[in-house]
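Quick one: structure tokens for this chain, please?
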Amino acid sequence: MKHIFLIILSGFIILLLSVTGCRKDDGFFWDSRWYGPLAYGQLTLSDLLDDSLIWTDNHAVFLSVRRNLFTLSGDSLVTIPDDLGRSSLRLPFELTVAPGHTLMNSQREHSIDAGDSRLTEAHIRSGKITVVAKTTYSVPVEYTFDFPGFTKNGVPLSVTEVIPASPSGTLILERDFEINDYHLDLTGLNNQQYNQIHYTVFARTASFADTMVITPQDSLALAVRFKDLEMKYLKGSFGQPSIRTTGEEAIDIFDNIHSGLLELDSLNAAFHITNGVGADLSIILHHLSSINHYTHNQVPLQSSLTGTPIHISRAAEYGGSIFPVSRTLDMEGSNIRAFTENLPHSIGYDLQMQINPMGNISMGNDFFHIDYPLTVDLEMDLPLKVKAEDLILTREVNLNVEDMDDLVESGTVAIEFTNHFPLEFFITVWAGPNGNMGGHKLSVDGENILSGAPVDAGGVVTAPAVSTVTLNVPAAAMQALKTHGMLLLQARLNTSGTERVQLYDHYRLKYKIIGNITVNIHG
């Protein structure tokens, strides 16, 4: 119900700001009062909940929750090191070289350390080839790297750069070359290997350079490496690595509930696993816990699914298209209702995954595409048939008080509610950020309880309940608003009786706000 209070207090601030149009003058002043309607409106369940999370069945409202617990990335599956090799030249004797003299001309084959993986091809989504040149030569040097196995639209990669002459000592020059959307052939020179990158490095003195005498103290070195590499596609044999990951996944549904009890009538929950990876997997969920950050209470999931290997078949690839495999694991018989009634702000997990538990049965045809990862999702569908006992919801509201001056001194706001919800609300408002830890509590004339609407024998509301709440805003509270620019709103919710209450999509809360404000006007 947090939006109720946000709209109410926003309307109040509109009134306060609307009377600040008169400016100060040293002439005269008087106190004036303003009374009248401030706002009208209504709230429905669609206003109170994210539309993407709710659905209805015969007008009864259900909440649908989908949270990703784990996604397998290419970096988790295969690590490709940055280093691609180094070429250097240092002569043991003096040599006089003319312009355009060849210094290096060699074919290099570099084996990348990809762990257990034996990769035959890859496709780069984004990244760079970085060449670091170190030279003591007193003339410019031109280098060229040719990568026959790196192609884009069938054209091999070739990079060229001129290194300026070193004025003194060692000159270091680093240059990046983009390799976005390049395809990599990793089968080596004879197309029968794996994890192999081959290239040709060529260097010469620039054609426009002067004649130079190279001494044993002179040197030239060229190092090449990947930079900011993100792979789009990998293919080969991924081996049998075991990946274990732990962490917490935030769940923001209950962020504004600070204490109290919420009982659910029922709950359907399941793990949904989608495997877009071309490898068989075995997953063990060692631990899953519901964590409430306000109460520090943790409820571990008790289910036959925890601690037991779950086998997932590999995805298929036909004609360049990938067809993932999905599996849904129902949590019937678990304590998922107590898990959810803990009102978690995050879900802690400890998950282990074995790649290719049966070995290299694909004969080197494992694959990974960045757009088709392995995902493990928690899915829950629960009817909004609930019982609430002293459920505390809070909401901080930031206010724009830059233009608020001494014109507004104090006042009251009367809020008339026509409540079609069978829920009782106890309202408290503070001016300031920390509630009773430092904010100024706004007093209430009379009751600050919104009565829940009465229901019939079937639990359906028969008529709305009408309540009026009047808030006093004295000068001290007004000063707190100006100082902190914030209101803290709190509502304690209770359902009447002992039965759980079903919420329907036609329930709504109508409101009318009347302001009675003291304004200090200077003329």
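Confidence is low (pLDDT under 50) at residues 1-34.
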